[in-house]
Amino acid sequence: MAENGFPEVLVIEPGGEIYPETIPQGLEPLQQLVGGYLEAPWCADERASILCNDQGKLVGLEPNFYATAVWHELTPAMRGNDDVIHGTVVITGGVDGYGNTQSIPTDMRDAIVKAVLRLTSR
User: Fold this and answer.
1) What is the dihedral of CA 42, 43, 48, 51, to 10 degrees?
2) How large is the average pLDDT for residues 61-66?
């Protein structure tokens, strides 16, 4: 958690821009980041939740190959799947027992940032 008690999440834009964002608790800040209602694709790593716009493909949002690569890394069973996440993606640290969004773990955040930066530098 950030000093103010708000969770720090990681945002991945379709063009590969990646940055941390500190947000207030609640559904609305997450919906604002993805631009609509939330979808949470299955993530095998229970330390993280991946959130995207649930209508991203239908409304023509740009494919997010960077976030899709992260999703496949965190969920090995998805590797080889041709499904691609569309639009802005938010990665959180999951939720606590009260349903509050948790910060993404620092080690996971750092590893994801390095991986995306490697992909964008190709």
Assistant:
1) -40
2) 96
Alpha-carbon distance of 12 to 52, in angstroms, equals 10
Give the count of alpha carbons within 13 A of 59, CB side only.
12
| Alpha-carbon dihedral sign for residues 58, 120, 51, 5 | negative
How far is the C-alpha of 94 from the C-alpha of 76, rounded, in Å? 18
Per-residue HEC secondary structure of 2-17 comes to CCCCCCEEEEECCCCC
88: tokens are 């802005």
Query: pLDDT-based confidence at 2, cuts 50/70/90?
Result: low
Helices and strands of the chain, counted as H and E runs: 3, 5
- Strands of the chain (E only): list them: 8-12, 18-22, 38-39, 49-53, 89-92
Determine the average pLDDT of the residues in 25-47: 94
Q: What is the DSSP pairing of strand 38-39 with strand 89-92?
A: unpaired
